[in-house]
Amino acid sequence: MSSDPLVVFTPSGKRGRFPVGTPVLTAARQLGVDLDSVCGGRGICSKCQITPSYGAFPKHGLTVASDALSKWNAVEARYDEKRGLKPGRRLGCQAKIEGDVVIDVPAESQVHRQVVRKEATARAIQMDPATRLYFIEVDEPDMHEPTGDLERVARALRDQWDIASVGIAFPVLSRLQTILRKGGWRITVALHSATEGSAPKIVAAWPGLHEGGLFGLAIDLGSTTIAAHLTDLDTGAVVASQGLMNPQIRFGEDLMSRVSYAMMNPGGDQEMTRTVREAIDTLTAAIAEEAGITPELILEAVFVCNPVMHHLLIGIDPVELGQAPFALATSSSMTLSAAELSLGILPAAAQIYILPCIAGHVGADAAAVALSEQPGQSPDLALIVDVGTNAEILLGDTERVLACSSPTGPAFEGAQISAGQRAAPGAIEAIRIDPVTKAPRFRVIGCPLWSDEDGFWEAVASTGITGICGSGIIEAVAELRIAGLMDPSGLIGSAEQTGTDRCVAEGRTHAYLIHDASADGGPRITVTQGDIRAIQLAKSALYAGARLLMDERGVDKVDRVVLAGAFGAHISPLHAMVLGMIPDVPLEKVTSAGNAAGTGARIALCNKAARREIERMVGEISKIETAIEPRFQEHFVAANAIPHATDPFPELSAIVTLPSVSFNQGGGDPGATGGRRRRRRSPA
Amino acid sequence: MSSDPLVVFTPSGKRGRFPVGTPVLTAARQLGVDLDSVCGGRGICSKCQITPSYGAFPKHGLTVASDALSKWNAVEARYDEKRGLKPGRRLGCQAKIEGDVVIDVPAESQVHRQVVRKEATARAIQMDPATRLYFIEVDEPDMHEPTGDLERVARALRDQWDIASVGIAFPVLSRLQTILRKGGWRITVALHSATEGSAPKIVAAWPGLHEGGLFGLAIDLGSTTIAAHLTDLDTGAVVASQGLMNPQIRFGEDLMSRVSYAMMNPGGDQEMTRTVREAIDTLTAAIAEEAGITPELILEAVFVCNPVMHHLLIGIDPVELGQAPFALATSSSMTLSAAELSLGILPAAAQIYILPCIAGHVGADAAAVALSEQPGQSPDLALIVDVGTNAEILLGDTERVLACSSPTGPAFEGAQISAGQRAAPGAIEAIRIDPVTKAPRFRVIGCPLWSDEDGFWEAVASTGITGICGSGIIEAVAELRIAGLMDPSGLIGSAEQTGTDRCVAEGRTHAYLIHDASADGGPRITVTQGDIRAIQLAKSALYAGARLLMDERGVDKVDRVVLAGAFGAHISPLHAMVLGMIPDVPLEKVTSAGNAAGTGARIALCNKAARREIERMVGEISKIETAIEPRFQEHFVAANAIPHATDPFPELSAIVTLPSVSFNQGGGDPGATGGRRRRRRSPA
After folding, report:
1. Which of A549, B69, B299, B300 has the highest local Cβ count within 10 Å?
2. Are B311 and B364 in contact (CB under 8 A)?
3. Which of A143, A172, A323, A358 to mutate to test binding with chain B, by most B CBs within 10 Å of its CB?
């Protein structure tokens, strides 16, 4: 035994002695080395590529001779000729151990390889998807020992892959016989394992070795936008991303209007359910086309969404979510089939995972943010806000995690804003107002130049300047305040008061003119008093939610702030703080997590253990219900000013001094928006 | 402890001591006594009725005083007033133990009570259905401890019924919130347990205590007829039975013609699948109407069928079953939802169980016969034949069980017979021919009188005499032979040869006139030479299958014969033996098991352990494939004559002496039917 060759695998460091002639794949399996294989060692899938190292390895105490592995064989030569093997690579199932050897498993040959995320602070995603491919050779039927084709497929999985028992999705069963015969009794099956203990289920099958890949959708189903990331379930790479407006907007812009629609219109909930499912179908077809794959290869989808969207997606009337005590029909995670959700573009057997909800107003999207940002692992106290039509807010550290949601409305997404639009080429996304000349300069999506830089106007000629998106309006309002064109109550001054004719009269209030192409038939983009009121309502709601969690935790400051959400990446921390969207922290303590809810969906898509993790985590998060908390109203009212009347903002004043102007015109409602809201408004 | 009162339950004999004040239901549960309860002891469901016995019980060693149980209380009084309690009965959840007592649990209060079957030889069915009702009181939602309504339902089931974990059928989830609120947080759920280890699933829910009952369908899906028995899942009683012609007949009368239709017509399999599912919907609606219940209460269905019908029901192209090696897509049992089978009249969450198939030509119907008739428990060697369009044949005893199927064609069901019709009022079901006068007398379905008895013609005036059904044609052919009107090769003699003008010329052959109402515009019912050939082909196939199993077992006689099938009960054993349908045994050893396949379906419907039992049994049955067995052809040819040329039939000749007539006309095909069959025919 001790005279058998020693095999050391890197990077794992796992080692063992094996008889001469043992295939490297066999040795790796026996040692539990993470080496992939779909074909089970038949030399056809190429997943088990390894790189032998030769020479002296004092660290491992051995020297590898050039004949430590068997010679390059016919299978490898054929594979190399047909598809090419990188220099130095061998197929682990073909190369046999002949002497002491050090074998490196490159990242792409590891089953559980890590996917590096763009965000610098984020943890990597470890690949361990719920759906995996298995190539099998199935016994042909024998009249004298009659068994069903499925039973022989199950036997092959048991004998060739040690999979003790297996089920099959009903729609796959009807095609199984044809696939087996077309593949000459060699087929690839996709197995989905919902939970650790349950038998995996065949959710797809192909004749022969399936090399077309396997894909999953991570879907962030928001009230205003639906964003989907098509992910390669083998590599974890996002191969296409697309977004779509949620067509339910025609039933109501915010969640409560949609709940009202369901209450007022019999069958209205079913109408909204149909609408959103059709939109998901449209998005699925478009994203598959963009990636150049057939939707038949999309075998999984993970959804994150707020509770109202959650219920409308799965076909439950959301009426209970519109009134205290805001009871969810179910808060648990769900695994169901595309057929059950009547999603027609995905294969009927595709498996849908929906993250658990935290509470009646704190949904699976907040759970996804928690999964992505892991506040419970944070040593310092982190405030995480995911800004959308509803803001999901988490406050926590290793000691305790609190969560709430706050109804900010769609203003942060460019809706209910006079020149608002969603983030798309042509939309103003950043703006600066010169404190002296009061003139604006801006940047639009699709062009890296500022409007006062050479070549800007030529660069944007094709798209034009079409409107202002969420991050643009936030910056515009903050800049109006910084430039002294707006007082702390949010009133824009007149041309006389401000000394610039960009402040134009609009009814009894004033608007600030950013861009006027009306002479050429183009848009005239202003920030109106109504726009400012909409942003004030939204930011006050967001701030009040954060304060409520801080009250509950018994703190009046946090250590750091993470901005998440589809446009979180584009909000300037300085402007967010001038606006009073978030509590005051040092600027360098404000980071962006990008679309954290979408990332949480991607994590759950790529790693099945993460599903169990978030199911456990939601049970440990303390939920705060903003809708019935009197202090929420107090914080909301107090947060209306820019900056907060009650907050000295010492950190901020070191950076920018806000002018102490006042444009109070006395009496009257200064053209506030948000007529659907039932909240008290602070006096103007 | 030892001074606590002693409680003895009958009929179980279970006994134990309990503190004074313990409710009888509680004592029963702790002892594992089989005492039903849906409401969990709340005094509203009345399922736990018991009868205390008073006086001296030397056998149990105790004397029961009249105050051994607590006094009749208000709950019992209210229940008695509202619905009535039988004299001597108490509610087990209300009556409390005060002293030593003997308590009888009447049959209708036992969960696992036995259902007596009509057939004298049959075992009783023990009730243990997969779906049961549970009444629960659910906590109301609390905003400060947010959980979903479903999660609180699960908690109630855990706390009130010790059910550790529970799932929910997706269609029920969408109605759960409404039901909970309508019931004031008191609801009844129906839980379905598919297998021992898996978590039960909520498949229906009602506000408050559901008292409308719970039903299941046992469906025998034959090639020619579909028969359904609507069963009360509480009592096991069959509350309605109905049959329907299988509308797939228009695609082909026998199984192989339907397989051919699928092969020749693209999409033909799906067309046949749609057709049979629609027929099941029609039958479900009709049977529910007959029973006066809403189909929403039918929460289970069990199907038994041959492999081709099995595949067409579940939506699998049966093409592989039409050619060797006759591979089934799957042979395992299946549990799926009505929605998955697109059965639209049953509730979407209704659970469908389909029995396992034994082999490519031996289906779930044969498995059901095995479950009903238990050949593996028989000490003597039993031959069980289930006669339909396909005959399922089982031969076995405690040592070994063999099975095959034989393609008899639909003649035994009255199809392919000139005056044939299905068994319905007006059909001739029995016939005798006077050996002297050669005149017939007969009985029709719906009238107990023979046609030569007084009052017969008046009794049948309303239905008329419409045709001849399966058992009628078998008797007619056998009687023609007994009366000397037909020779052993199956030829009917002419009027001259037989001396009766009832033998009329029909083309080059002769027919026997049974009934002629054509003068009044009614039918003219004859047995033609073609009819006899159809019956000869059918009975030869049946006999050859039985012989094949006997060869395999190495015997040339069996101890007993069980005739099963929809019309098995109506076949006269004497006539079956004259015809040579079955091997020769003493007449008293031929019994009828009625519709054994349908009974097997009922057993699997009423008792979930029986499902595991048949799944185990099919693995132990040896399957014989008749289609490729050369000896089948030999037996088939040899069996064509009436009686068998090679078989002395000593038992039979003791009863009836068959005449040695011969009506050979020399040469030519005597008008045989069965043009579609590819079998060799014996020389006429």
Report:
1. B300
2. no
3. A143
Strands B6-10 and A427-433: unpaired
B121 in Cβ contact with B129 (< 8 Å): no
* Beta-carbon separation of A146 and B359 below 8 A: yes
CB A673 within 8 A of CB A533: yes
Q: Do A314 and B148 touch (CB under 8 A)?
A: no
Token pair 């979510």 is at which residue?
A: A321
- Judging contacts by C-beta atoms under 8 Å, the chain A residues touching residue B141 are 325-327
pTM for the whole thing? 0.83
**Domains contained in chain B, number:** 5
What range defines the domain where residue A24 resides? 6-109
Chain B residue with the nearest C-alpha to that of A151:
B330
CA distance A460 to B251: 67
Whether residues B555 and B611 share a domain: the answer is: yes
In a domain, A684, yes or no: no
Contacts of B667 (CB under 8 A, 6+ apart): none
**Mind listing the pLDDT tens digit for each residue in B563-584?**
987 666 678 888 888 888 888 8
When CB atoms are compared, the residue of B143, B148, B330 closest to A149 is B330
Task: Give CA–CA dist B390/B409, Å, rounded.
Answer: 6
Using alpha carbons, select from A424, A468, A430 the residue that is nearest to residue A446.
Answer: A424
The secondary structure of residue A246, as a DSSP letter, is -
CA distance to A174, A289, B341, B684, per residue, from B301 (Å): 21, 42, 12, 47
Q: Is residue A176 part of a domain?
A: yes
When pLDDT is averaged across residues A551-577 and rounded to a whole number, the result is 86
Give every strand in the sheet of A215-221, ordered side by side: A238-245, A225-232, A215-221, A298-305, A351-354, A334-337
**Which CATH number fits the domain that encloses residue A173?**
3.10.20.880
Which pLDDT score is estimated for A674? 36
Q: Please give the Cα distance from A487 to A489 (Å, whole number).
A: 5
Q: Does B405 reside within a domain? A: yes
How far apart (Å, rounded) are the C-alpha atoms in residues B645 and B664?
A: 15
Within A525-649, residue ranges assigned H as helices are 529-553, 573-579, 596-606, 608-620, 630-638
Mark yes or no for CB contact A359/B331 under 8 Å: no
